[in-house]
Specification:
This protein has 58 residues and is mainly α. It is built from two helices and no strands. It has helices spanning 2-44, 47-57. 0% of the residues are buried.
């Protein structure tokens, strides 16, 4: 019985660590995507958007 309890506790800890890693990866991906979007807006200054609108009119 003691071995089964130890295995269940170990399995629960492994699952919790896995879920924590998944949550951290999702958070890191969201932050990286936001940083890249902000960097693109900062360097672009909207010129790409204006160019596509002007290309459609021509």
């Amino acid at each position: 019985m003691q071995i089964i309890k130890g295995l269940l506790i170990a399995a629960a800890l492994i699952v919790m660590v896995f879920l924590l890693l998944v949550a951290l990866l999702l958070l890191a991906f969201g932050i990286a995507a936001d940083v890249m979007r902000r960097q693109d807006e900062w360097t672009d200054n909207g010129s790409r958007k204006e160019k596509t609108e002007n290309d459609r009119e021509a």
